[in-house]
Amino acid sequence: MVKFTDEMKDALRVPGKGGSLIYMATSSIDGKPNIAAMRFVATHGDDKILISDMFLLKTKMNLKENPECSIAICHPLDAGRDWVFKGKAIDIEYGFPLDFDWYGANAKEILDKWGDWAALEPPKEVPPDIVFPKPAQRGVVVLHVEEIYSIEKGKTGERIQ
Amino acid sequence: MAIVLTERMKGWIELMGCHLCVATPGGVPWVTVSRFARVTNPDQVSFAMEKGEIGVIEDALLKNPWVAFGVSKQGGIRAAFQFKGKGKILRSGAEFDNVKKMATGVATDAVLVVDLTELYCTKPGAEAGQRLDIMPPAEVDAWEKARWTDIPGK
Known about the structure:
heterodimer; A: about 160 residues; alpha+beta; 4 helices; globular; B: about 150 residues; 7 strands; about 35% strand
């Protein structure tokens, strides 16, 4: 059973709050991988990572057929944040039954708090030439983390939890 | 269409290294990093991998050659690309020796060579997921120059 450390919780926040840009990796059911960078990240409890569903395409398609997912810190990678979080994810979209449960995460609770993420944590730190236009959030991805391993230089692959 | 990585893409990949993702044939993704990457052909990237780095992905890669990767260490989504192709692992031969020699500071156990077949834009917004390898290389270059002009390392 995984329990995030305080350092992990600090890292798994939006970059504007001292957190990290992350990479989210998924796969089609027949093994075609996909990896995309994400800004809107947070933790929920001690073993769940939240990602906004604003611009997801392949990631979303993959999760519709295969919940296997990994999240790694993209930046700052070499600041002691050398982790990969591995588990099962679902995209809790508007329209899900409000009592839907994903390993203890409740859909209403997640959407009420994080369903308008751009208003909650606007991308003030993102430079004008790469900031996104008007966001249209469709849901929140919830990754239930079952394993954490290292990508620290010299220790890559070592299981942390 | 043939893929020809642009000067800017090459700059990002080689300056920052990459996060690499493979998957088992049943769809379990595994992520590793390579801190040394070189564009070894216009449509090919080679990674010097330490033992642990290749160890994370080797079992899956031997059964399923697909590799997806993006540029590491970005503070914002500025190198907004995802690269996909088929990978092979080398532990000897001229290609291995050439990359290992360049990768000072890396205890190279293996070289992962990825021949690219797909190129995507990952810029958040309307162009997220746009497939770029459907355009001729010159159009991809012009498309990128219209959006970004920074060349990492220059």
